[in-house]
């Protein structure tokens, strides 16, 4: 499957908003090991914009605004990690950021985060069953993942693909705004 309209090379950067840029650096560089590669002071004292290398030529960026409103758990981002509570967030919000990790390092990386004091979710083996996950990896498992949160509550995920997708993986009719239960 290829894009016939644009030659896209992935995500250039994803920009989130931080309440404390120092804590953001401590977490993303100190805990996750992402190099801080660019820092900017925005003009007219609007704030800061910092970029971290998250691998594969992609960047994770953060804005810090002195007058940014506080995030609202369950609105701005999910209130908890999947398996521990609610996954829902508001329309237009960023629900979570999933970082690709090698399948052979998946369990090691989960343990490493736990050893650093980071609360991680149970491992989810995503499949096409009615529950969407299974306890064990099987031939229908397409991705393994676990979730954790950054200092501002942004939901993060370490995920590893276990198989390539085929045309058979696109089999559901898309829902519309008319299908929503809340307006």
From TrEMBL:
- Which InterPro entries does the UniProt record give? Glyas_Bleomycin-R_OHBP_Dase, Glyas_Fos-R_dOase_dom, GlyoxalaseI/FosfomycinResist, VOC_core
Q: Where is the VOC domain?
A: 10-161
Write down the SUPFAM superfamilies for this protein, in alphabetical order. Answer: Glyoxalase/Bleomycin resistance protein/Dihydroxybiphenyl dioxygenase (SSF54593)
One Pfam family, short name please?
A: Glyoxalase
* Source superkingdom: Bacteria
**Record-given protein name:** VOC family protein
């Amino acid at each position: 499957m290829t894009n016939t309209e644009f030659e896209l090379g992935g995500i250039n950067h994803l920009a989130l908003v931080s309440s404390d840029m120092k804590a953001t650096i401590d977490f993303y560089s100190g805990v996750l090991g992402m190099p801080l590669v660019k820092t900017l002071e925005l003009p007219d004292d609007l704030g800061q914009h910092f970029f971290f290398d998250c691998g594969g030529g992609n960047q994770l960026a953060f804005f810090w605004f002195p007058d940014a409103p506080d995030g609202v758990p369950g609105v701005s981002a999910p209130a908890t990690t999947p398996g521990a509570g609610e996954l829902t967030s508001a329309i237009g919000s960023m629900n979570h950021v999933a970082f690709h990790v090698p399948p052979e390092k998946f369990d090691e990386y989960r343990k490493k985060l736990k050893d650093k004091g980071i609360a991680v979710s149970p491992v989810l083996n995503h499949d096409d069953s009615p529950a969407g996950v299974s306890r064990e990896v099987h031939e229908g498992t397409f991705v393994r993942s676990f979730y954790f949160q950054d200092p501002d509550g942004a939901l993060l995920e370490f995920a590893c693909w276990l198989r390539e997708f085929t045309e058979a993986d696109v089999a559901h009719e898309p829902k519309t705004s008319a299908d929503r239960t809340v307006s």
